[in-house]
Amino acid sequence: MRLNDAVIGIVLVLFALAMIWHTRTFPAMPGQDYGPALFPTLIGIGFIVTGGILIAGGLARRRTEPWFAGGAWLRSPHHVIDFLAVVGGLLLYMVVSGWLGFILTSLLLLFGWLVLFRGGKPISSFAIALAVTLVVDYAFSQLLLVPLPLGLLQPLIY
Amino acid sequence: MPALEEALLLVFDPYVIAVILLSSLFGLVVGALPGLTATMATALLVPITFFMEPVPAIGAIIAASAMAIFAGDISGTLLRIPGTPASAAYVEDAYRMTGKGQAELALGACLVTSAIGGLFGALVLAFSAPALAEFALRFSSPEYFWLACFGLSCAVFISTDAPVKGVVSLLIGLFIATVGIDITAGYPRFTFGSVELMGGVSFIPAMIGMFAIGEILRYTIAMERPVEAVHQAIVHVFRGLGRVLWRYRTNMMRGNLIGVVVGVLPGAGADIAAWISYAVAKRFSKEPEKFGTGHVEGLVDAGAANNSALGGAWVPALVFGIPGDSITAIVIGVLYMKNMNPGPTIMLHAPELLYAVFITFFVANVLMMPLGYAAIRLSRQILHVPRDTLMPVILIFCIVGAFAINNTVFGVGIILVLGLLAFIMEENGFPIAPAVLGIVLGPLVEDSFMTSMIKSDGNLLGFFERPIAAVLGVVTVLIWTWVIVGWSVRAWRGRPSPMDPETAD
Predict the structure, then answer these.
(1) What are residue A68's DSSP bridge partners?
(2) Which residues of A touch B167 (CB under 8 A)?
(3) B contact residues 370-389, partner A, Cβ 8 Å cutoff
(4) What's the rounded Cα separation, in Å, for the pair B499 and B503?
(5) B82 and B98 Cβ atoms separated by less than 8 Å
(6) Is B238 helix (H, G, I), strand (E, B) or coil?
(7) Do B324 and B314 touch, CB atoms closer than 8 A?
(8) What pLDDT, in 10s, does the model give residues B42-51?
(9) How many Cβ atoms from other residues are within 10 Å of residue B484's Cβ?
């Protein structure tokens, strides 16, 4: 997923402008010339300078370099699905783990990922998912005392 | 020395030794598997070390990283895929030696030079760190400001071919570090009302995201899945090795030295040490034409260098709190969480911790011989671990690790966002290491800058008034001037410039 440097440069400059604009709302420190806005502003200026260099370089190579080169994987549905499954799985965990609880969410995610990456094999995938979930749950909630959410299983456990 | 005795007791505790052994095995497996790097091994260990005392926590990281750097040679030799980037420099030679039926010699040479390189790095660390710490006790905020700037400059200019992209990466890291309550005025910056962000972007989820999730995402889009390991009997790992190592004894010493020096420089770690020492070996070899065709000479140099770099990287990390590479950047984050702020005062407050680091380095590198030998003998089984099964397991581990730090799913959000960021950066040739150094050093740079400004009443010259600060400041300013002038001159003459990412790739 290669972007032309000019595209990245533009994103950086826009980001920096928004950031500097936002730092203007930061309060000044009484009796000091420098306050909490100083460092973010310097970083923003840095983004603008480097972004400018990237834009210049990217435009100079415009003929040989497209704005966006996807890479072979974007044309392979199998790879795109694998990629999205990782991103989607993490999002799903954030949304449902509190309600479902760690054990059920982990079981669901592991099973899904395993079936997807290994190309089928649901029975062994389920066995692996169950074993890994129980080991991780034991290690973190029993040994390291991390309060992993119990969720729907709470009435069963207590 | 009572501190040394105390440190010996701390390290040779059955629990600590067990932690070191287990982390060593973990490091060997992770390092040997292509796609899982030594830095990832460290990042995955961090959530567990969070729950340990400082000495076992640090011992676990030292052992796992040292073993992983060696183990990267195993898959490089047998699969032609470097297990960690640190083995990439000489993967061609190592693999072609296997083609000639010399896999045993190649792996043996890697193992022994790795262990010796690691011990050399540990020696340098043990002798230089206390002396440097004594010197560094005279430092105040202007010195720390310049030291951090010097470290960040090195990270940008050493670790990349395209300095502009290195600078961008560094700025991204510094920006991430500004999120949260600001140090001097206590004003919440870039939190947008989120209470979770007030404490800043938590360090452990950030590392897991950038090193583990980023790599898993790259794994999912890898077009070719790994090839079969070469079937070759690997039994007599040490046969004929003594003769070879004696013949190339100066190479080994040279590799050790280059490794330590590159390791000490901030931002450059084992992988760059290996590339530089391989190039130096070729340059000064009597038979440079043999390099790349399955010649053991470069393996000796670079195999020693990448492990000695590990010890070197700990020198600035412990003495100044400035990481020498990404692994020590993670270590510094871990030390801060344990309220053991790295820096010269560690010599005064916790000398036993410093000695424990030295001792663990020796223990880990001595253990490397038997454990590494076992890993070589079992290499076929290790390389057969199905990565399709491993990746989901690592993912769930990352999730729980990120959750465990603050007990909120917000950590999972951080690993996702920073994982995607690292993925996009890597795809477009932006190095990750400067960003990590930016995250770690950002608060130090800002804090020391603001403190110095308040002390000197807003006078910028205050940064040059103390002698050590003046020297450090002038050196840092010179590095930047040199790079910028050099770039402008080349741009003026219309030659391809190294600032231009395209020609430098």
Answers:
(1) A3
(2) 46, 50
(3) 386, 388-389
(4) 8
(5) no
(6) coil
(7) yes
(8) 888 988 888 8
(9) 12
**Statement: residue B499 has pLDDT above 80:** no
Kindly state the percentage of chain A with pLDDT values over 70. 97
Q: Do A144 and B220 touch (CB under 8 A)?
A: no
- Contact between A86 and B213 using a beta-carbon 8 Å cutoff: yes
How large is the angle between the packed helices B387-406 and A122-137, nearest 10 degrees? Answer: 30
Q: What is the distance between the alpha carbons of residues B421 and B172, in angstroms, rounded to a whole number?
A: 10
Q: What's the angle, vertex CA B315, arms to CA B311 and CA B320, rounded to 5? A: 155
d(CA B489, CA A63): 25
State how far the Cα of B414 lies from the Cα of B392, in Å rounded to an integer. 18
Q: What is the C-alpha separation between B206 and A152, in angstroms, rounded?
A: 30
Q: How far is CA B198 from the centre of its chain?
A: 29
Structure tokens at B504: 């430098």
pLDDT band at residue B504 under the 50/70/90 scheme: very low
What angle is formed at CA B37 by the lines to CA B35 and CA B42, rounded to 5 degrees?
Answer: 140
Of B487, B126, B88, which is closest to residue B303 (Cα–Cα)?
Answer: B88
Helices (H), B50-102: 54-79, 91-99
In angstroms, the Cα distances linking B52 to B47, B61, B152, B413 are 10, 12, 30, 25
Please list every residue in chain B whose beta carbon sits closer than 8 Å to the beta carbon of residue A79: 220-221, 223
**Chain centre distance of CA B243:** 32
pTM: 0.85
**What contacts B425, CB < 8 A, 6 or more positions away?**
B169, B172, B431, B432, B435
- Tally of residues, chain B: 505
Task: Report which secondary-structure segment, H or E, holds A69.
Answer: strand A68-69
Q: Which of B77, B25, B36, B32 is nearest to B382 (CA)?
A: B32
* Rounded Cα–Cα distance for residues A120 and A114 (Å): 8
- Whether B257 and B301 have beta carbons less than 8 Å apart is answered as no
Q: pLDDT tens digits for B2-35?
A: 788 888 988 999 999 999 999 999 999 988 888 7
Q: What is the rounded CA–CA span in Å between residue B24 and residue B18?
A: 10
Residues from chain A that touch B216, judged by Cβ atoms under 8 A, are: 86
Residue-wise pLDDT tens digits, A2-42: 888 899 999 999 999 999 999 888 887 776 667 788 889 99
Query: With contact defined as beta carbons under 8 Å apart, do A72 and A122 qualify?
Result: no
Closest CA to B465 of B448, B475, B452: B452
Segment B413-418 shows an average pLDDT of 94
Nearest Cα to Cα of residue B358 among B177, B127, B182, B201: B127
Q: State whether A146 and B409 contact (CB < 8 Å).
A: no
Can you name the residues that pair with A3 across neighbouring β-strands? A68
Alpha helices (H) along B33-53 = 38-49
Q: What is the pLDDT along chain A (158 residues), one digit of tens a residue?
A: 788 889 999 999 999 999 999 988 888 777 666 778 888 999 999 999 999 999 998 888 887 878 888 777 888 888 899 999 999 999 999 999 988 999 999 999 999 999 998 888 899 999 999 999 999 999 888 888 888 888 888 777 76
